[in-house]
Amino acid sequence: xxxxxxxxxxxxxxxxxxxxxxxxxxxxxxxxxxxxxxxxxxxxxxxxxxxxxxxxxxxxxxxxxxxxxxxxxxxxxxxxxxxxxxxxxxxxxxxxxxxxxxxxxxxxxxxxxxxxxxxxxxxxxxxxxxxxxxxxxxxxxxxxxxxxxxxxxxxxxxxxxxxxxxxxxxxxxxxxxxxxxxxxxxxxxxxxxxxxxxxxxxxxxxxxxxxxxx
Amino acid sequence: xxxxxxxxxxxxxxxxxxxxxxxxxxxxxxxxxxxxxxxxxxxxxxxxxxxxxxxxxxxxxxxxxxxxxxxxxxxxxxxxxxxxxxxxxxxxxxxxxxxxxxxxxxxxxxxxxxxxxxxxxxxxxxxxxxxxxxxxxxxxxxxxxxxxxxxxxxxxxxxxxxxxxxxxxxxxxxxxxxxxxxxxxxxxxxxxxxxxxxxxxxxxxxxxxxxxxxxxxxxxxxxxxxxxxxxxxxxxxxxxxxxxxxxxxxxxxxxxxxxxxxxxxxxxxxxxxxxxxxxxxxxxxxxxxxxxxxxxxxxxxxxxxxxxxxxxxxxxxxxxxxxxxxxxxxxxxxxxxxxxxxxxxxxxxxxxxxxxxxxxxxxxxxxxxxxxxxxxxxxxxxxxxxxxxxxxxxxxxxxxxxxxxxxxxxxxxxxxxxxxxxxxxxxxxxxxxxxxxxxxxxxxxxxxxxxxxxxxxxxxxxxxxxxxxxxxxxxxxxxxxxxxxxxxxxxxxxxxxxxx
Lengths: 214, 500
Description:
heterodimer; A: alpha+beta; 37% helix; B: alpha/beta; 19-stranded parallel beta sheet; 29% strand
């Protein structure tokens, strides 16, 4: 008796078209959701990549601003501390490292974007007529690890380690420019996980920015 | 034939019945609607992705342009100063430097239809904001523009032909570097008003084997400077306010300005309070300010002030010494807490040069007995006219006379010596020292005042160091002049910065 009732009800639902549209819409939305999630995730991936590039640029510009003051020039002598951090809260006495690091982490990615190897590269570059920028020297260790802006420097260590002129480049009389190179990294977390194509893309984003500080 | 016609009619009837039979049928209608909606949906998503790509490209190009213009400006400025030895010009390196940096960001001029243009002040390029600068030929900007075409996809299907109608979207980013008129402070300024002592040719001379350390203490002069053979001066830069014609190796960088460096303290002359002295017998002490009111307490001394006891100043005080000197006489003159002092050497109007006072001189600060010390900070910022000024020599009465004005040790020869810490006298000072008629020999180490900031700025007639003298300054002597309240001498415009 009960079995007969159930069978009758089942066949009744099979013949009924009520709610079919809702079921079809649910299927369609389900199928549509996946590409939409992919679009959102890919767009966010691209946006995050752009923010990572921007963080590198902001770090470089913060380093430039820190060194581009009267008491911090010439930068090789008076604006250094590439690999050191200061505990001073004075904005006027930041090391180059601190200035760059603050510039990076004050962007939208905050502390999730970091300096590669926790350091800023400082060196001397020359440019050629083929528009190629080539590193020709490095900053002396004394500067790299000395204090912040205006800290005492040893004048015996002024010269860059490497060549002192751009001989062989576009202008033999030109002096190599001092650049800082800021490499940053950020780890991207896919929003929708394995459903999204973005999860197949490299999760570690890196960006590099150059700025001439002197 | 009739059979064929009949069959055809039957087929048409069946087709019509099936077609119209779907009309009331609701099965599968959502799928059809979704399929139809997918077309515009995909189109919109495609356009959104394409538009986003333009923004991505634009942001990347802007980063490259920013870095390129900074590099170009730095290279140009470097050449400018280097070329100024003969004829000031910006050279051509800046264009190559800017393009090379753009290449580092992946934008190589001429490759993949990428265009990188670099323009300098010699073009000239108008700046996007109103900035002023006081170095010649630098009143315009550096500019870098990076352009790159991006192919059109979905938007092209909808008839969009690019922003220039060429079938591609041209993405362009421009960056400017403008000369910034940020003041560059000067720690030691020689005015070169009057004649010099010691056979000096220039108002600022560092010669011989003396050891001078002016780390963080830029120097400037309106009477020429010569530090030839003196590689240890260690000043960040030297500024010659005499058109740059008399600068010789003073400072790690040397600059010339087309007009004299302004004297920011000369105008305080009119603020020296008037006071009538019935005679110039002098004093051994002055009443000390009680507490630390905002407005300083004025005390007047007619003749020499020869300290008879230690003088600790805890309030804010202005000591006006008329026709006399301040002799520590083996005593300590100190400020502490929030206290500060301004010592003014002056003479009544019409008495020029000052009357000769027995046992003293014309506005000296010295220690006749030895063993004394001075540890004073200026009146604090916000305390009024004399805020930031520690010692002020009235420029008027001594003007045009060869009056030396300051010594840190026993003065018997009338050669003014800024004598820093030594075995007999300790000098610790924060604030401004305005001695426009003093011809100084720098000697000894100078510390900052115990209750003062890292601030020391000195304006004198001339400075000499002719061997045998060692002089050094406490660290970063200009770093806290804002807190100290000094009106430090300065010049403008050495650098370029991103703008716009």
